[in-house]
TrEMBL record:
Keywords assigned: Glutamine amidotransferase
Protein's UniProt name: Class II glutamine amidotransferase
Keyword Kinase tagged: no
Source species: Agromyces lapidis
Matches recorded under Gene3D superfamilies: Glutamine Phosphoribosylpyrophosphate, subunit 1, domain 1 (3.60.20.10)
Signal sequence range: none
Glutamine amidotransferase type-2 domain segment(s): 2-280
Keyword Ribosomal protein: no
InterPro entries given in the database record: EgtC-like, Gamma-glu_amide_hydrolase, GATase_2_dom, Ntn_hydrolases_N
Domain of life where this protein originates: Bacteria
Pfam families (alphabetical): GATase_4
Length: 280
């Protein structure tokens, strides 16, 4: 469906991961070996928190309907901006039109959200899911994607208080509504959420066959494993990245996030927790 990455650590130029790595996000937009679609050229988006952000600072974002490999503004922006935490996403549209309001990541207050996957049978369940969004959030839905509805449904169900519980409640609602309309496997995808300090990355599908999700190992370990790799020297000890697919072919650099798991990244450390493992 799409490809995405989330970075947290010492401030870096966005271009280091979006443009410059061996299998960068822009490279994946042209050729995604592990993706459901090889080409992800239906727009892109970047959301970033400023270097001097304090708790509650909202992120900035840039969306474009251009293919990521074709947009000169993306190169200008990613070389000019440094951030300690950013999201980037390249889109392969699966129905909703190609327009800026349908590009990820989505933003509300200090929260960022992006999704790779789909809510099956959206033409059947859209109305019920939209009506389940709280009245104060419903007018904020600007696009037509299932992903944006999922975000505001999660906000309705407590994402800001407890991201894991809020996402779990939203996905349970998606499955409940989907099953009521005869949709066998309503939820598919990987989701990234951040409040500007932490990152939560979810891998879950109703079928138990979710899109791929990986995260990097500790940067100090990686630099010790590959001291000859000059490209690794520009990253600090807390640099971590969560990705739809690895950004390089260095053996051992990335580990796969298990099915039905949330990977939580806080202060340079990962932990994995089961997520809706017994939902079906």
């Amino acid at each position: 469906m799409c490809r995405w990455l989330a970075y947290s650590g010492e401030p870096i130029q966005l271009s280091k991961l979006i443009l410059d790595t061996q299998n960068s996000l822009v490279a994946q937009s042209l050729n995604s070996p592990l993706g459901a679609e090889t080409v992800n050229g239906d727009g892109f988006g970047v959301g970033w928190y400023p270097k001097d952000a304090v708790d509650g600072t909202p992120p900035a974002f840039f969306h474009s309907i251009e293919p990521a490999w074709h947009d000169e503004n993306l190169r200008e922006i990613t070389h000019a901006i440094e951030s300690p935490l950013f999201f980037a996403h390249v889109r392969a549209a699966a129905g909703p039109p190609i327009q800026q309001t349908n590009c990820h990541p989505f933003r509300h207050e200090n929260w960022l959200f992006m999704h790779n996957g789909s809510l099956a049978g959206m033409n059947l369940v859209r109305r019920d899911l939209a009506l389940a969004v709280a009245p104060e959030f419903y007018p904020l839905i600007r696009g037509t994607t299932d992903s944006e509805v999922l975000f505001y449904l999660a906000l309705t169900l407590g994402l800001r208080d407890d991201p894991v519980a809020g996402m779990a409640a939203a996905i349970r609602k998606v499955e409940e509504v989907g099953h009521a309309h005869g949709v066998e496997f309503p939820m598919q995808g990987t989701v990234a959420v951040s409040d500007g300090a932490m990152v939560w990355a979810f891998r879950y599908s109703s079928q138990g066959r979710t899109r791929t999700l990986f995260h990097s190992i500790a940067m100090a370990t990686l630099q010790e494993m590959y001291p000859e790799q000059a490209r690794l020297r520009g990253f600090g000890k807390n640099a971590r990245v969560i990705v739809s697919e690895p950004l390089s072919d260095l053996p051992g650099a990335f580990v796969e996030v298990p099915e039905a798991t949330v990977a939580i990244l806080e202060q340079g450390q990962y932990r994995h927790e089961p997520f809706l493992a017994n939902a079906e």
